[in-house]
Design a protein that fits this description.
single chain; 272 residues; alpha+beta; Tetrahydropterin Synthase, Chain A; 3 domains; three-stranded antiparallel sheet; 10 strands
Length: 272
């Protein structure tokens, strides 16, 4: 009976060591995540093999796994202070959609570390935004060039980060805030330009109407000239005779005096 306590303590120690060993040797990687293996006695960060995928893994207890979110993520930069081409300060809100490159996750961990967002993405987006905004006037930022500016920021930032093991998916310019006085001046100018365009439209419409009337008048005048040239005295006499015959055939009472009208045409005298 005295042997059981002596055997119980080593057994408890073995069980505890086994639990610690299993805890240190296992790692569970969740959905949308990947693990970078660090070998304490085998060269450090593993970069020549794919990262560990989702699920349960057994590793040597002296090694370590760094888990990364590999899903698309968003970084929102609010109130960035930038200068326009004429030196006016502008506030910019920008969203960046990004994710680490899965096949380069080991290199990302080795060269940038887990805080790659603050080391790569944020500094680059701020620098590029300042550079791009500095090419445009406040009026262009407020109205016509919004999409072009957004595309330029995206393309330039993408070029800068693609060699740093990070994938940039999109850049969205959420808001551009101008000084109140500048914004009001731009709005007044845009209103005046709109009014000027409307006035030009009315003038053009009036010119078109006048041109239409002129063309109609010229067409009528040309028709009259052609008609006048075609009406000879013989044709007029024939037309007169035809009209006289039609009147003579009507039931209305009248008096016809033959050969008394102009050019020898008949005269028709009615009782009215």
């Amino acid at each position: 009976m005295n042997k059981f306590p002596k055997l119980g303590l080593p057994l408890v120690v073995i069980i505890l060591l086994s639990i610690i060993f299993i805890a240190k040797s296992s790692v569970n990687i969740g959905y949308g995540e990947a693990g970078v293996l660090f070998k304490t006695f085998g060269g450090g960060v593993v970069t020549d093999k794919p990262p560990l995928g989702e699920g349960f893994h057994i590793i040597a207890p002296w090694n370590r796994v760094y888990i990364y979110n590999i899903k698309q993520q968003e970084e929102f930069e609010s109130g960035m202070r930038v200068l326009s081409s004429n030196g006016l300060e502008i506030s910019l809100d920008v969203s960046v959609l990004y994710q680490p490159k899965l096949d380069q996750l080991g290199l990302l961990h080795k060269t940038k570390g887990e805080n790659y967002l603050g080391i790569v993405i944020v500094p680059e987006i701020r620098a590029v935004a300042r550079s791009v905004i500095g090419r445009y006037t406040p009026e262009q930022l407020y109205s016509t060039k919004r999409d072009a500016i957004q595309n330029e920021i995206f393309e330039e930032t993408k070029r800068k980060v693609e060699g740093q093991h990070v994938q940039l998916n999109s850049v969205l310019v959420r808001d551009v805030t101008l000084p109140t006085s500048i914004k009001e001046a731009i709005q007044r100018k845009l209103t005046q330009e709109q009014e000027a365009l409307e006035y030009e439209f009315r003038l053009e419409k009036a010119r078109q109407e006048a041109e239409k009337v002129r063309i109609d008048a010229e067409g009528k005048a040309a028709a009259n000239r052609i008609l006048a040239a075609s009406l000879t005295s013989n044709i007029l006499k024939d037309k007169g005779i035809e009209a006289t015959l039609k009147l003579a055939e009507s039931a209305n009472s009248k008096i016809v005096i033959v050969g008394s009208g102009k050019d020898g045409l008949p005269l028709i005298l009615g009782n009215q």
